[in-house]
Automatic annotation (TrEMBL):
InterPro entries: Kinase-like_dom_sf (IPR011009), Prot_kinase_dom (IPR000719), Protein_kinase_ATP_BS (IPR017441), Ser/Thr_kinase_AS (IPR008271). It comes from Oryza punctata (Red rice). This is non-specific serine/threonine protein kinase. It is a lipid-anchor. Belongs to the protein kinase superfamily. Ser/Thr protein kinase family. The keyword Lipoprotein applies. The keyword Repeat does not apply. It catalyses: L-seryl-[protein] + ATP = O-phospho-L-seryl-[protein] + ADP + H(+); L-threonyl-[protein] + ATP = O-phospho-L-threonyl-[protein] + ADP + H(+). Residues 52-67 have a biased composition (Polar residues). GO terms for molecular function: ATP binding; protein serine/threonine kinase activity. Gene3D superfamilies: Phosphorylase Kinase, domain 1, Transferase(Phosphotransferase) domain 1. Its main location: membrane. It comes from the Eukaryota. Residues 37-67, 372-440 are annotated as: Disordered.
Length: 440
């Protein structure tokens, strides 16, 4: 997790730079981690007046109430044993937060153990927030917290093991001789990630703003099912009729929504913008920020803008490693979803629930395909001679998914027309308005 400002790495500071709300979370959690292993961790920070009601009303992914799940409190010795004393051949990855090792617990369970560098980007506060969030939240598209360790100065997090590692390992910096992720797998990952965000925004109570969506934070199981990880920057969303929360600008450069950078006002639509960048990464195979490219092409969103506006150029966005192996109609709709998520005006970005429906249509693969699950156009089952089975799909649901996908594409076109109309009106009134090149 990159725990730094969108502008530059931020020095660690005491409570002066820390919002009172965050301090409350840390104080409450610090006390909880010192308690016995059997004691329940708190569901919600104490600064929410409705904390007890929120805990009672928190829903699982299927709508049934859930309570906070207490991860096991491990000793440092147990985790050292599980990882063979953090031996180098157990290392899965490392970053500004510390290192992640593959481990095996006494019961045989294989886990990923994140050993935090408290002098790095993820400090004690982020550790406490992550334990809180993952104890409260439960969804198939969120990584599960097995437990934690807080012995002395040691801070470790124990997660379920994800066999394929991070999405970034499979999507970015691939060479021409590597087999790329197929179009279907990319849309499957986009759909699952959207479902995870939908749960955080619309089903968790209070809502949660993830704040650090990016390909390195999406972990994959052995069937390419995605799970959101690294919740150290996550924040509880606005409650009590408030439209936003004010906070320091934190996240990863290239993914931050423009209004968040300008105003420090955080909403769920901030995550929606980041999802648009993430979806562009899946479509293009490019990094959100790539300093190895020419200066004009380093920022993915800036590079993609002209092509997002012109359907005849959508094919220029596609990862060249796919070699044209993707359904052209589905590409247009996937690009339209990304474009709507990337609208500069936060209010016109879609809700994640609408995005889930649209991407569900694009990710759908009918049964009966032979050995082409990763490459065939998902929605062309009636025309593809390789389709040999029969399916009984809910036609109404299928039509609804198609309609939402087309509605999002229509919305992107309408937004451009609205911007052009507003520019003409402003010109007639003698007002200098933003040019179309500054809009999506």
């Amino acid at each position: 997790m990159s725990c730094f400002s969108c502008f530059k790495p931020e020095k660690k500071m005491k409570s002066k730079g820390m919002e009172a709300r965050e301090v409350t979370v840390v104080k409450k959690y610090g006390a909880s981690l010192k308690n016995s292993e059997s004691e329940k961790l708190p569901c919600v920070p104490s600064d929410h007046k409705q904390s007890s009601e929120a805990a009672a009303n928190t829903e699982s992914h299927n709508g049934s109430p859930v309570t906070a799940r207490t991860g096991k409190k491990f000793t440092f010795r147990e985790l050292a044993t599980a990882t063979n004393n953090f031996r180098s051949d157990r290392l899965l990855g490392e970053g500004g937060f510390g290192r992640v090792y593959k481990g095996q617990l006494e019961n045989g369970q294989v886990v990923a153990v994140k050993r935090l560098d408290l002098n790095g980007f993820q400090g004690n506060k982020e550790f406490l927030v992550e334990v809180m969030m993952l104890s409260l939240l439960n969804h198939p598209n969120l990584v599960s917290l097995v437990g934690y360790c807080s012995d002395g100065d040691q801070r470790l997090l124990v997660y379920e093991y994800m066999a394929l590692g991070s999405l970034a390992d499979h999507l970015l910096d691939n060479t021409p001789d590597q087999v790329p992720l197929s179009w279907h797998i990319r849309m499957k990952i986009a759909h699952g990630t959207a479902k995870g965000l939908e749960y955080l925004h619309e089903k968790a109570n209070p809502p949660v703003i993830y704040r650090d969506l990016k390909s390195p934070n999406i972990l994959l199981d052995d069937e390419y099912n995605p799970k959101l990880s690294d919740f150290g920057l996550a924040k509880l969303g606005p409650v009590g009729g408030k439209a936003h929360i004010s906070t320091r600008v934190m996240g990863t450069y290239g993914y931050c929504a423009p209004e968040y950078i300008k105003t420090r006002q955080l909403t769920t639509k901030t995550d929606v913008y980041s999802f648009g960048v993430f979806l562009l990464e899946l479509i293009t195979g490019r990094r959100a920020v790539d300093s190895s490219r020419p200066e004009c092409d380093q920022i993915l969103v800036k590079w993609a803008k002209p092509m997002l506006r012109d359907p005849s150029r959508h094919h220029e966005l596609v990862d060249p490693l796919l070699r044209g192996d993707y359904p052209k109609g589905d590409l247009n709709q996937a690009v339209a979803v990304a474009a709507m998520c990337l609208q500069e005006e936060a209010s016109v970005r879609p809700y994640m629930s609408d995005t889930v429906v649209a991407l569900g249509f694009l990710a759908e693969v009918p049964t009966g395909y032979k050995d082409k699950i990763n490459t065939v156009p998902q929605n062309k089952q009636d025309k593809d001679p390789s389709f040999t089975g029969s399916t009984k799909q809910d036609q109404r649901s299928f039509d609804r998914q198609r309609a939402v996908a087309e509605a999002i594409e229509w919305g992107a076109t309408r937004q451009k027309q609205k911007a052009q109309t507003q520019e003409k009106i402003s010109h007639l009134q003698g007002i200098v308005a933003p040019t179309e090149t500054n809009r999506l």
